[in-house]
Amino acid sequence: MTSFRQFDIGSISKKLNGINAMISVANCVVFPCLMVLSSYRFKKRFVKILPNGDIQGGFTRMIISLIDFSFVRSLTAHRYTLKSPPPYDPPSVFLLELFRYIDQYPNMDRFLKDLRDKDKGRAYRAYAGIDMDNIPTKGTFSNFKARLGVTLYNEIFHVLVDIFHQLEMITFNIIAHDGTLFPSRARYKGCSWFSGQCEKIETHDMIDRVKKQIIHRLNNLNKVDLEKAFKVKVDCPCETLPEKIKRPKIEALVMKIGVMDASMSQNQIHTAILFGVKEQLDKQGLCLNIIRSNIVEVAPDLDRITIRCPKIPKDTDARIGSETTRKILPENKKSLDTIWFFPPRLS
């Protein structure tokens, strides 16, 4: 049986002394930027456990007091150069993002509001090594993630996972359980008003619209979250849609701006050329990443892009609404009106 004594603060602190030293030796790459907007330094702090079991200062203080995050600077050093503008110290940005998750802030705006507060943000600023004159913006965090990329950002977390593994707080043992599958009725998924024209919807202003959105983001990099994708939508042109129903928007394209890698793919190059922003992206070392696309045909010379509505159901015979007709024969009129009948759904 595992003794719980190995998980008290004293035991963990002693183990982390050795672990921090090994991590420092393994990550000794010199950070190239001489001028930085913040300066993180590891400082051993006393961690006090209150009588009710809570930690004085919360988990944020405990983690920053026991783990040396200087390794983040070494892991990210190759993403910076001597010619780079003065950046924030990588451990500072990473820790602030970590603090936000640990203290369960609903969004970055709320966290930054407290970070700027003289009293509420004092501990965060002290732990991360920043001062009141250089509070980062929302764009700082998105650009930091974009500069590092998903692989390198996850590599930092892997170091933390390895620390907890060495502390034997996690073992990587898999707990398996048995389960039973029960049959259920499948539900209809898709638009009930689809028609033949939904397969090919022509647009004649999308190229210009996308270009304007990209240029706007490039001109406001400090305010724009590069991690957040933006969508391009068009109005539904379906003629069978009843007038009483609000005409929906159709998603044509979902993309985001990212940091250019060593070599761009042909798709990234062609996408930048299509929307006429390759020169602007190259100047800032950025590229376009397509996340989802419903484009089926492109004719740049005609400024025409054809898309397929993603809401077309796979089973086109399982329409929820069935179209029926009836004759209405008033005294002074004879006509044929179309009505729509919606049978109740079976639960």
- Count of helices? 10
Strand order of the largest sheet: 1-6-5
Radius of gyration: 28 Å
Uncertain stretches of 5 or more adjacent residues: 321-347
- What class, by secondary structure content? alpha+beta
Q: Mind summarizing the main beta sheet?
A: 3 strands, antiparallel
Name the shape in a single word.
elongated
Overall number of structural domains:
2
- Overall average residue pLDDT: 79
Task: Estimate the strand proportion.
Answer: 5-15%
Order of helices and strands: HHHHHHHEHEEHHEEEEE
Q: What is the tally of beta strands?
A: 8
The percent of residues in helical segments reads 25-40%
Distance between the termini: 49 Å
Describe the structure in your own words.
- The chain has 347 residues and is an alpha+beta fold.
- The protein folds into 2 domains: 4-166, no CATH class; 196-323, no CATH class.
- The chain is 34% helix and 15% strand.
- The protein has 10 helices and 8 strands.
- It has helices at 9-26, 58-66, 71-75, 90-102, 108-116, 122-128, 138-166, 206-219, 266-274, 278-283; strands at 201-203, 230-235, 249-259, 286-293, 295-299, 304-307, 322-328, 335-341.
- Strands 1-6-5 form a 3-stranded antiparallel sheet, with no helix packed on it. It has a 3-stranded antiparallel sheet with strand order 2-3-4, with helices on both faces. It has a two-stranded antiparallel sheet with strand order 7-8.
- A hairpin with a 4-residue loop joins strand 5 and strand 6 (304-307).
- It is elongated and about 70 Å long.
- The relative contact order is 0.09.
- Residues 321-347 have low confidence and may be disordered.
